[in-house]
Fold these 2 entries.
Entry 1:
Amino acid sequence: MAKGRELKRRIRTVENTRKITRTMELVATSRMKRAQDRVTAARPYARALGDVIAGLYTPDLADRFPLLRQPAATHRAAVLLLTSNRGLCGGFNANLIREARGLIARLRGEGADVELHVVGRKGIGYFRYVGQPMKVQRTDITDRPRAEDAASLVDGLMADFTAGSLDAVYVVSARFRSAISTPPTTERVLPVDPPKRTGPLPDYLLYPSAEAILTELLPSYVRNAVYRALVETAAGEQGARRTAMKNATDNASEMMNTLTRTYNRARQAGITQEIAEIVGGAAALE
Amino acid sequence: MLTVSVISPERVLFEGTVDAVVAPAFDGEVGILPKHAPMMTLLGKGELRLGVEGSAGRFRIEGGFLQVLNDSVRVVTERAGE
């Protein structure tokens, strides 16, 4: 029964692994729900801000706002890549890194210098491994991002853009469509693409002036775009982890079934053989 | 009555109807009562009071804007606390 003992050991190993993946699945599920609530809770602000900017924006204002400046050519661009700090979430980070690499290659192909800003251990680890210099490396953003995190990430970029040392800023992050769909996306946050106006603006009294309000709100709009990317990536990470851990748990169950079946068959074969030997032995005595 | 919502980047802090709103605008406090003309103003730093004498809620806010339209008031602020 040497084989039987070996099989039993393997069954126990797989069972222990399944316990771990099952727990991680449950943890990810509850974290994902909370992260999802944060995604939903951030929507009213984005909508309110978008409405007002769309209402106040007119194309002839574009020249007067540095954040709306449309450079003729992109000479220097920044890519802000958001990844997770932890692994075991399937292809989540790999997809984000691939998206970022594609974008960087495209920008370089168009003749732009690209500076890379990376959030999350996984992205940093990859780009350190391939020897690509990063201007900013951040691992201090938790899975509960705050609005200040977004501000600290993008304020420097806005200053550089305003000063003219950057011509475009892209954010590579995950969209949270559902637990099983968290595709990587690229969004250009600078120069700002003002949202489209849906209807005519009511006759507002504006204090101090449309221009002053836009000056104040455009940076908020950019910060909010980054904040949204942060919360969606955080939710996406949990969703991807849940899916990955669910698959792992299912695979472990299947493996256990196969191993148990093999074990039972081996046990049965052993018993049959013993009986045959006894019967054979008894027959030889007669 | 005024329908008021107070919105921060992270969540909606308040939603409901109140009699009056006093908000810290960029150049001093602004009071809003029902039937106010459509208005949009930048906000400064200070205390937002909902209801008479802040009876329906008080928030410390900083930055953002306030919008009044058809007796509905939207306070959209960058930073807010109770």
Entry 2:
Amino acid sequence: MSSWTWFHRLASPPSFYRLADRLAPWLGWLALALLGYGWINGLFFAPEDYQQKDAYRIIYVHVPAAALSLSLYVGMAVAGFVALVWRMKLAESALIAIAPVGASFTALALVTGMLWGKPMWGAYWVWDARLTSELVLLFLYLGVIGLWQAFEDPRAAARACALLAVVGVINVPIVKYSVDWWNSLHQGSTILKMGKPSITAAMAYPLFASVIGSYLFAGYVVLRRLQNELLSREAGTAWVRELMGRSRV
Amino acid sequence: MTKRQKRMAAVLLLLAGLSVAAVLGFTAFSKNMMYFQTPSDIAGGKLPEGARIRLGGLVEKGSVQRGEGLVVNFSVADCDANLPVRYEGILPDLFREGQGVVAMGHMDGKTFVADEVLAKHDENYMPPELAEKLTTPDGKHSCAQFKSMGGST
């Protein structure tokens, strides 16, 4: 089992806390740089669309938010799986660190989509497969957060949340492929599709930058939340007391 | 099996079972998952008279005719069939010939009478200069996004 020692060391709260402390600033600054480039170029300098004019610029927020809403859920479900099978405390903390971040990005994707839908489609909301499954995704996130708050014992809470997170992962491919499997008002995928690109390079580069930048930002927020979670969970242990003592000097 | 392996088996089994249930369920109800039906579906269909449905397709080039007041007549097509539509009301900004629409309404004889028309945007983004170069004569390139339910079974 010696090949797994790095894994066990990583999974121990104090060493992960230190790793996150070193990693987080990099993620944060890189995210700031990429989002700065992506959003300034996307919102001000990219050409306007031949049909939607300036309204299409919502994609620089909507697409990253929607992509993250799915990716973060997968991350949360993986953490839930590890928490269920290996009973690892770090995974339990990761699960609850991710949930509110994922819920926020899901809500952002829904709201930006609605604001775009009214002028473009003619309706804020329709019950097509994509919109409905994305709303279910929001409810799954809120369910995890609510379950977490409902338990006194953090370990029991984590187990319940993990089960919900893992079961809910079924919804992720439904959201992703709803526009391919069924007729929907929501359009198909622009970036992640085979064949010729459906977006001009001058519009696409800021979009890629804002997607990657948003992922890094989400990584930054999740790491910081995870650090916080570890501190409050391990309060009173030697490493936390040592850390707090040192930082106070 | 250790306890850990048992837990893993239980979680994986649960996921597999749920996936099978989801696939079966969505296959059985795939008709209900369709947000709209296409002209082909209606052409080959057994629609009950006066049933309210949504019709989706491309507005055919050259088919839009403005009538009295806010009345608009146009024809909606997918890759195989087309259907005349009558609508009275305000159209969304993106409504134009060659573009996708989803109309809510019912069949009245051979005409689809709509009381709500939404624009369906496709996944293409480009500046106007490029769009002019790319314009295809009939807009058939984008009809594939309107999936017929097939065989109207």
